[in-house]
Amino acid sequence: MNLNKLIPLYIGAAVGPLGGFGVVTIIPVFAGVWSIDFAAASLAITFYMVPFIAIQIFSGPIAYLFDVRKTLLMGFAVYTLGGIVAAVSGSFPMLLAGRIVQGIGGAFLAPIIMAMVGELVPPAHLGKAMGGLGLAYTAGVTLGPAISGMLEVRYGWQGFFYFLSALTALTAVLFMIWCRDIRPKTDGRQSLLNIFPLIRRAFFYPGVPFLSFAAFSLFVAYIGIMTFTADYLKTVFSLTSDKIGYMLSLTGVSGLVMSPIAGILGDRFGRHKVFAGGMIVMLAAIGLMLALPFEYGLFMILFLLLGAGSATGWTSLNTMAVQASPELRTPVTSAYNTIKFSGYAFSPVILSIFYGGSRLTAVQWACIGAIIISLILALRTRRI
Question: What is the pTM assigned to this prediction?
Answer without folding.
Answer: 0.89
